[in-house]
């Protein structure tokens, strides 16, 4: 299951308590998730559901900040449930936590509006990174599936001012490619979160991309990192 120990959750500074809904049909996984997440004072489990239909109903009633969602759910799968939740509650973040790793399911999950994609069996630290990234507005891909997503994307054109990236921007870009959130990058490089945000904006402007995932794709395809 998950091993918790004393891992720290790096949420943005303005985040108080994050209200979480768990949608998972495996009772043991549901229990493991609840115990792991409840160990962190910034996280509050406000509800659980064992199928996609009940998950949507619970989300509409509870209006959680974030939903941890499985894909292979009874009655309504996690992809369809995510689409319905995002349509009704666009501010609610969704982290897919699943054993499904086919190309079709990965792309469909991201297309449904999911903010993060994690693989079951990964460390709780990876799940916490996904949660922090989603809350920050970033897209998180588990390293096990990131390369496959990149390979399925249309090769981007490394236009713009990629050659003009500063040394610090290249450091930030490398950590973005590794899936770190802004607070984690700030901690690793001993920078303030606002400084990291400025670097991220500068990187995206110079690479002529709209989000972090596109920036990572350009970086990997162009050999920038």
From TrEMBL:
<dbReference type="Pfam" id="PF00072">
    <property type="entry name" value="Response_reg"/>
</dbReference>
<dbReference type="InterPro" id="IPR000792">
    <property type="entry name" value="Tscrpt_reg_LuxR_C"/>
</dbReference>
<dbReference type="InterPro" id="IPR011006">
    <property type="entry name" value="CheY-like_superfamily"/>
</dbReference>
<keyword id="KW-0597">Phosphoprotein</keyword>
<dbReference type="GO" id="GO:0003677">
    <property type="term" value="F:DNA binding"/>
</dbReference>
<dbReference type="Pfam" id="PF00196">
    <property type="entry name" value="GerE"/>
</dbReference>
<dbReference type="InterPro" id="IPR058245">
    <property type="entry name" value="NreC/VraR/RcsB-like_REC"/>
</dbReference>
<dbReference type="InterPro" id="IPR039420">
    <property type="entry name" value="WalR-like"/>
</dbReference>
<dbReference type="InterPro" id="IPR001789">
    <property type="entry name" value="Sig_transdc_resp-reg_receiver"/>
</dbReference>
<dbReference type="InterPro" id="IPR016032">
    <property type="entry name" value="Sig_transdc_resp-reg_C-effctor"/>
</dbReference>
<feature type="domain" description="HTH luxR-type">
    <location>
        <begin position="158"/>
        <end position="223"/>
    </location>
</feature>
<feature type="modified residue" description="4-aspartylphosphate">
    <location>
        <position position="70"/>
    </location>
</feature>
<protein>
    <submittedName>
        <fullName>DNA-binding response regulator</fullName>
    </submittedName>
</protein>
<keyword id="KW-0238">DNA-binding</keyword>
<feature type="domain" description="Response regulatory">
    <location>
        <begin position="19"/>
        <end position="135"/>
    </location>
</feature>
